[in-house]
Amino acid sequence: MVTKFQSLHVGDRFKCIDHPSSDRIFVKMNTYKHEGYKVNTALLINGVVETCDMASGHCSGPVFLELSQNVELIREKVECKECGHVEELVWDFHTNQQLTKNKLCFNCDFWNEKVSKANDPRSVRVLTENGEVDHYFIVKDEPLSESRFAGHGGREFTIKFNDGRIVKTRNLWCQGSVSKHFVDRLPVNAEFIRG
Question: Has this prediction a pTM greater than 0.85?
Fold first, then answer.
């Protein structure tokens, strides 16, 4: 039977619906055209995706497999130690491994990485009018070209840091408002000034 999946990752597991005690699922055909799509390749061994046709270990969908049995895809989950959210691991193989190792959801892992660079002089955190802390990162100013662009379209910003430094940049990148679970570790350290 042909089964369609939105995506597959190395390590994804399948459960046999017709015979729940069996984990032996055989792929009859793992690459062909179906419904006009060029199908990605995935190799299942004993119901676990062992390889995919992309170096990342991820087959973006749709992925069609002709399987010997009716199956249900079971994705590993991680319970985030920061926010408590239980998240299905639907990312690429490397990201799934990192989230599992760190016991973090994708959002908290993102902000955890920013905490590791909190003392970097290029890390900018400003208080917004609505009381949130927005996070920015200064990247080296370079001339714009067709292949190179700048944060905020190259608009100039003047930033006054709490330590007294004043920095002008035309390459400021915004990462968004800091998650409430990380505000204490990413406190305000600067303000925008005019002129």
Answer: no
